[in-house]
Amino acid sequence: xxxxxxxxxxxxxxxxxxxxxxxxxxxxxxxxxxxxxxxxxxxxxxxxxxxxxxxxxxxxxxxxxxxxxxxxxxxxxxxxxxxxxxxxxxxxxxxxxxxxxxxxxxxxxxxxxxxxxxxxxxxxxxxxxxxxxxxxxxxxxxxxxxxxxxxxxxxxxxxxxxxxxxxxxxxxxxxxxxxxxxxxxxxxxxxxxxxxxxxxxxxxxxxxxxxxxxxxxxxxxxxxxxxxxxxxxxxxxxxxxxxxxxxxxxxxxxxxxxxxxxxxxxxxxxxxxxxxxxxxxxxxxxxxxxxxxxxxxxxxxxxxxxxxxxxxxxxxxxxxxxxxxxxxxxxxxxxx
Length: 336
Fold this sequence. Notes:
Blueprint: H1 5-9, H2 15-18, E1 38-48, E2 55-62, E3 67-73, H3 77-82, E4 95-102, E5 110-117, E6 123-125, E7 142-145, H4 167-174, E8 200-205, E9 209-214, E10 219-224, E11 241-247, E12 250-256, E13 261-266, E14 269-271, E15 276-283, E16 289-297, E17 306-314, H5 327-332
Parallel strand pairs: 3-5, 10-11
Antiparallel strand pairs: 1-2, 1-4, 2-3, 4-5, 5-6, 7-8, 7-17, 8-9, 9-10, 11-12, 12-15, 13-14, 15-16, 16-17
């Protein structure tokens, strides 16, 4: 499918998982000034190869001659591994040079990694591991890559379409704190966020159900296709209860019974018992991509329903990586 500007703008919806609200949220790209770059030369003092984020600590000097220990934030291990990194890439004492986007708070020695050059002269970046070959899928089953068509978030106002929040949503956002960020407690994002991230996805089609696995937090969803309805007064969970039907080769998924969660529709905006989504998984005409369109309604917090989309690339040669969330790592760097 063609990659039009309008289509790419839909990917900014991942900001609902990652952009900070009034208080800067844990692991939020909005905390970083992407209009500035800081270059550091120094020595690695610590290298944490963990999830939900890899962290590099460097004692070094920036371009102005300022000496400090810098905390450099990077992607989770699956994305890093596909970009050439490993648990043994760095060790304490390694002399490195790196480039990063600095924290907007100039008082913090903290940044988001752009690239790093190892003692061996190898320069590594982030999110460079997109699938490069076009392979044709016969149906929806197999592994799909969300990275090639992913665009990083910019700001809340860039959501396409815009959100129309209720007063309850605005009140909840005003009271939101970084400590409430779900990922800081190793809690995965719900759909539609879950479908719009730069990770691998795997679909398995069975006789009475479809299993959709996300590499992010190793989430597995079950879509029942045996004709059942949603249970009355059923258990509410983060991913909800999903039933599906086939329209030709397109899978249509109806999901209800979502548990309350934060960052559902925008920074600091929760969702509640009335949240309902309809997803359509549409195989492209040439079989190389999968469009995932999600209709979302949640009248308690969003005054008008909206539809978002993402596009995954067929990547049958890729293997899903485990995403074990380290609770200490998740809690360690909440940005106040």
